[in-house]
Design a protein that fits this description.
CATH superfamily: Quinohemoprotein amine dehydrogenase alpha subunit, domain 2
Helix content: 10-25%
CATH class: Mainly Beta
Distance between the termini: 46 Å
Strand order of the largest sheet: 1-2-3-5-6-7-8-9
Order of helices and strands: HEEEEEEEEE
Largest sheet: 8 strands, antiparallel, barrel
Number of strands: 9
Structural class: alpha+beta
Shape: globular
């Protein structure tokens, strides 16, 4: 009996470890820039409480750094030369994320 309980607990723990976060995937949004509206594309990958990924703009691709996840909330930094921007995000629905930075707020929608 003890062996069966151990196997069941191990199986359930393994499933939780490999469960995909709803933050994972491709997302898109827009931000007002100096020359008008700029499209931003994000790819997020969650492993445990760690967030990795990239953002792609017309200027190229940048990695997400120092990413952390806590439930539906997450944070990360992005570096542009000497400048580092802190980002705080929240998954508000299965298809919408809100990201806040010192430059304002941006909504992202899931790419289907």
């Amino acid at each position: 009996m003890t062996k069966k309980i151990f196997i069941l607990l191990f199986f359930l723990g393994s499933m939780a470890t490999f469960a995909q976060s709803k933050i994972d995937g491709k997302w898109k949004g827009t931000r007002e820039g100096q020359n008008g509206t700029v499209e931003l594309n994000y790819t997020f990958k969650v492993e445990g409480d760690k967030l990795t990924g990239t953002t792609t703009t017309p200027r190229g691709e940048n990695p997400i750094e120092n990413g952390k996840v806590n439930g539906n909330k997450f944070s990360y930094t992005m570096s542009f030369g000497e400048m580092t921007i802190e980002n705080n995000g929240e998954l508000v629905s299965d298809n919408e994320i809100v990201i806040k930075t010192q430059r304002g707020e941006m909504k992202l929608t899931r790419v289907q």
